[in-house]
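Because discrete structure vocabularies remain unfamiliar, it helps to consider an illustrative case, giving the amino acid sequence and backbone structure tokens:
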Amino acid sequence: MIISLSTLLLGGATLASLAAAQVDPALTGTWTTKSRKVFTGPPTCPRGVIQWQHGKFHKASNGSLILTPFAVDGRQLISDPCTYRNAVYTRYKQQEIFKQYEVISNPYDKATRLNLYGFDGAPMNPMYLAYKPPEMLPTKTLNPTSNSEKGSQPTSKSKVKRSIPGDQDGLVQAALNKKILVQQKDSTMADRLWWLGAGMTLLGS
């Protein structure tokens, strides 16, 4: 069956008119989440930040939790194409303080839930118990250096090259030991494959 272009345009305009008539005006606009920092749409400079840390924590006498990361292990990856040509990968350390916490049974599914409150008492996103006993990295630095803080030194007196589970090629270890600029991969091939797939779908229909 052959459908003319004018018929398609007329049908599209009719659907658009019906959709516009059925939408509640109160729903019109760009919506965001509680943080009011994440937006959809075509931003001119999409910016992303990934941070990773691990370390130790202790409970203070006032009931707050103090998280102290290992400075030499923390990493931060920033992608800001309007400022840098490549993503910036650096060391990162940020101590965290939670004013209070509570462990409860989630009323909805009875899962064990951890409620955390920031240094100012503001509630954080809840966390749920996944493993007990915990499955985690060792409570010492993965990247020992001469500047490692006290308490995070390796137990062996000799300088032993550390291995990371699953890092047979040493790529993770290499990244931990230096600051690098991670060059963005060329997406030209992926774009071509997408358009090829779209074309084949149209021909098949």
